[in-house]
Amino acid sequence: MLTTEALRRFAIDVAGVDKLGVANIERFDNAPPDMDPRNIMPNARSVVVFLKRILRGTSRGVDEGTHWSSYHIFSYAGLGAMLGTAKDRIAKYIEQNGHDATPLSAIGTSREFGPTAPPSKPGMPPSNVVVHHRIAGTLAGLGEIGWSKVFLTREFGPRQRLAMILTDAELEPDPIETGVLCDRCKRCVAECPAGAISPDRSVSIDVEGHHIEWNDLDLGKCKLTHFGLNKLSSPFFAKRFPGVSLPVGEQEVTWLEAWDLGRAMFPTMPALSALSASPVAVCGARGCIIGCMKHLEATGALSNTFRTRPVFSEGRPWRLDEEPGHRFEDHKGFVWDPEEADSEEEPEPRKDEGWY
After folding, report:
1. Residue 324 falls inside a structural domain
2. pLDDT tens-digit map of 177-225
3. Rounded Cα–Cα distance for residues 157 and 151 (Å)
4. I want to staple 97 with a disulfide (CB 3.0 to 4.6 A). Which of 2, 53, 70, 119 is the partner?
């Protein structure tokens, strides 16, 4: 007979995940129809959630402002692929024990896209049913949602990504645990380069006596920054468009507008174009993950500790200037040469000078 503990041991020892938890289906009784697991798998009895850690060292280059690809490849898109492999192995293990297993996509933003098809029949939600992974992780006892909306665990703080499988196996649920890690320090608010994390507005649910609350995140500002259009957190847009002022904190865009703009801009920036086969995590989560990690490590709240640098960094986050890198008088609407602008010598007259 399949048990929670047997599944956990297989997931960790064979599939290579770092942690696994189980929620019974009744914990989702109050979920909206388009987020209810039973509208994907009607006979589901358990929701299995597991995670793989984000390697702490992949955030080094982002924190120092020197290197972005390690975070994206190993701790974002690449980590998603590794979770997909683990998901396949765990689902097969469940099937080998005589139960159905439905692996779910990690695309947690389908709601922002809007329904792409009508309901399959009257009384059903549109076809894009998406179970909230972070809520599911909380209900499966893996950890809690922090104020930033990032998922936190006792082991790794904000350093993990989640995956999920539905099954008709009636497994022993793990206890829910909330209010343990996030002390509402709001460092995530202060260090988010987009100003996307609200200091006071929140969203919340209540399940089995647990009040689960997170900030009412500005998804448009978050996505613009995530896609590298925020000069405060990424050098690529600033290098390609030094004369553009795009103060992300002042924008009032929807998540979908930000998505479309980011995807349209990727081909203009070689570094992002090379990585854009999957959504590019250019921001490096500098407020919601790095800032939170610094605080939790400093308070000694995490079990995954480090010898030589017990706290990731005590320094303030680096920033580029949101203002244009040059002014109209530097280029008159033609090409701007930063090397020429930095030179102390008087530039040679240009052939097109009479056109100004």
Report:
1. no
2. 999 999 999 999 999 999 999 999 999 999 999 999 999 999 999 999 9
3. 8
4. 2
